[in-house]
């Protein structure tokens, strides 16, 4: 087995610049159009920020999922918390345990960093995602409101 590879052949590792095509493809599948160049810019941003993380899941050397995490201090909780900002499993790799593996990986890394709370948001139209998170031990929290600021 390769480092960080589980018995099912899934390896999880930090994203690097050469992963931009895979990151763009996965974000597109989630409904967030992203070019290779835009993905490269996003990877650079994450790599330059020690409070952020972008991990890729691979099987047989092919990217099959990603998860991004942002650690932040919560005044309300008086502690650091981790926020999952994206979790995607490729269309052709779903229901194979890859999403659960990515969640477990960020949970382990968060515990190692002394973080005891992870938050994740999911669009209300993504019923499958809500069921997935509940099945992984996440409970519904607060309602989130969003306002897009124009130019």
From TrEMBL:
Pfam families noted in UniProt? Acetyltransf_1
Q: What is this protein called?
A: N-acetyltransferase
Name the Gene3D superfamilies on file: 3.40.630.30
Q: InterPro entries given for it? A: Acyl_CoA_acyltransferase, Bact_Acetyltransf, GNAT_dom
Keywords noted in UniProt? Acyltransferase, Transferase
Q: Which residues form a coiled coil?
A: none
Q: Respond yes or no to whether keyword Acyltransferase is given for this record.
A: yes
The entry lists its GO molecular-function terms as: acyltransferase activity, transferring groups other than amino-acyl groups
Cite the N-acetyltransferase domain residue spans from the record. 10-151
Q: Which domain of life is it from?
A: Bacteria
Key word Acyltransferase present: yes
Transmembrane segment boundaries: none
């Amino acid at each position: 087995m390769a480092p960080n590879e589980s018995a099912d052949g899934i390896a999880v590792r930090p994203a690097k610049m050469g992963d931009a095509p895979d990151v763009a493809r996965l974000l597109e599948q989630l409904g967030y159009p992203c070019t290779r160049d835009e993905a490269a810019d996003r990877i650079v941003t994450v790599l330059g920020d020690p409070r952020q993380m972008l991990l890729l899941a691979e099987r047989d050397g092919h990217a099959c999922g990603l998860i991004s995490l942002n650690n932040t201090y919560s005044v309300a909780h008086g502690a650091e918390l981790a926020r999952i900002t994206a979790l995607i499993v490729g269309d052709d790799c779903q229901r194979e345990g890859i999403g659960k593996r990515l969640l477990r990986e960020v949970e382990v890394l968060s515990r190692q960093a002394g973080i005891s709370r992870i938050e994740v948001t999911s669009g209300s139209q993504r019923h499958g995602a809500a069921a997935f998170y509940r099945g992984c031990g996440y409970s519904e929290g607060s309602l989130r409101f969003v306002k897009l600021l124009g130019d």
